[in-house]
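Teaching assistant here, posting this on the class forum so everyone can see the example we discussed in section. The complex has two components, and the goal was to see what a joint structure prediction looks like when all of them are supplied at once.
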Amino acid sequence: MTSAATIPEQSGGRLTKLYGVLKDIMSRPSGAIGLMLVMVHVVVAVASPWIVPFDFKRVDVDLMLMPPDGGHWFGTDQLGRDVLTRTLMGGREAMFVTAIATPIAVCWGGFLGILLGLAGGRIDDGLMRVVDAFLSLPWILVMLLVIVIFGSSMPVLIAALGFFYGVPVIRVARAAAHTVVARDFVVAARARGHGRLAIIRVEILPNVLDALMVEGAMRWSWMLLAFSSLSFLGFGVSPPTPDWGLMIADARSLMSVGPWAVLAPIVALSSLIVGINLTADALAKALGIDRAQKAPV
Amino acid sequence: MVRLILRRLGLGLITVALVTGIIFVAIEMLPGDACVAYLERDAVGQRLENCREQLGLNRPAIQRYGLWVGAAIRGDLGVSASGGKDIATLVGDRFRNTLLLALCAIVAGVPLSLFLGVVTALNRDKSADLVVSSIAILAMTIPEFVTATVLIFVFSIWLEWVPGIVMTSAGAPVAAFFPEIVLPTAALTLVMAAHILRTVRSSVIEVMASDYVQMATLKGVPYWQIIFRHVLPNALLPAINVVALTIAWLLGGVVVIEKVFNYPGLGRLMIDAISDRDIPVVQAIALILATVYVAVNLGADVLTLLLNPRLRTLQMRGTR
């Protein structure tokens, strides 16, 4: 249950509100740490091609699994490639794909959810059964089937993640809309004869937006998790593109000889996902949304 | 009461029926079919025709769907495309192994997380709470394969306490999986316990702030009596649903963990079957996992209904 039904502030523009929320996040230690982690990762992902010390795909058989030293700060992997370079670049594809797929998921799931919450009745009941059916399938099965059918190119991954991770958003948006539809201002708007879309845009969306933003932040971290798990299993990014999931999978078998090659991508991936989660938690608190009852779907 | 439970059961059955539809349509979209995948280069002419005839693949889709569902209801899941083995027996052992793993994680994780959840809530914002809650957030957010890799590195390679990989074959007796099952169980428990702990913690905190608990405190009821008589029964009810959702999720999340540890369960079989395009096996596993998910959720709903008189009457009136 989300308490998204706060009355939107009358005065002050969106920027003021955004500034207030940001300040609130930064005032909590966990939120500040989280936001810093995310920002560092975003900057590194954008800038890495220009700042990395080596070519990410240069193989050197003389340098196989060298421990960290002055030249290669994080050592080299089983093919003699620089681990620091590959770790800095390893999040690019994952972050790019999920950064596009997350808004897609939140938009379509949010819109359909609000529509269902407003419509109610048979359509609502029926479509919620379909949503339940989708949710009862493990995400990994669904994603693997899509990849086997359409391949694992970037557009396919974006479309698949955007679609399937939008399904649970329907539930959240519907629940949030439910708390609003029965309220006076919506009834009044209906009585004034406003159309359905106008009611959604003017009356419901401002009240549901907070819940959707928090949901979006969570979806982002779950998508990253899915993306890197798929890479780890060998169904995602194809070599030699550096990717954390793939790097961990490759270096894992040689963990006893060269733990640095697996440690660097582990720290990178974990810090990003933890960062997003801390930020999402702080955002939820700043917006006054209770995420405690959140189910791990 | 009975009507309500029957209604829930009906909804669950509808969900499973829809799942069969989704699975079937998705599988229909796969390029090629079981015979093309099985015969590989020989998949031409008469041989392909014979294979399709044998597996009944040349019938119209709707008829095949009916046959598949009909057989599945009778417990016949068909034969696998690669090797023509009976899927029910093939899946049976793996399903038992996955259940064993899940059961170990539940036995270890549920009491632990309930206990820690209550303890952290009662010591809110003290150092014990901060430490446990931070670990829980880490365990919950970091991908399973990372947790598993770290566990293998620490306990198998570095300390050499337990084996880091499962070598036991799928059909081996249950006892043969110890001690190899320890690390997969630990990886699974960490993730599962973190979710339950967080819910229980916030639920207990919420109840502690309620009017009736404050009333009891003012009346001078002893602290532990308040906790056991007033707080826990009210706080742990919502936990039932989260435990169920976590268990249901666990059956899907177990896939990655099984693959990492080479554990011969349903999840690893699923990944292998998808790579091999062994369509009948994929269908069967998807159906089993979805059914378990629905069943566990249904069980939790019914249990909550039975235990909470308020919810019972509330839901009588509304139709949800």
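For the discussion questions: Chain A touches chain B at residues 129-130, 132-134, 136-142, 144-145, 148-149, 221, 225, 228-229, 232-233, 245, 248-249, 252, 255-256, 259, 262, 266, 269-270, 273-274, 276-278, 290, 292-293, 295-297 (CB under 8 Å). Chain A has one domain: 25-287. Think about how each of these relates to the inputs above.
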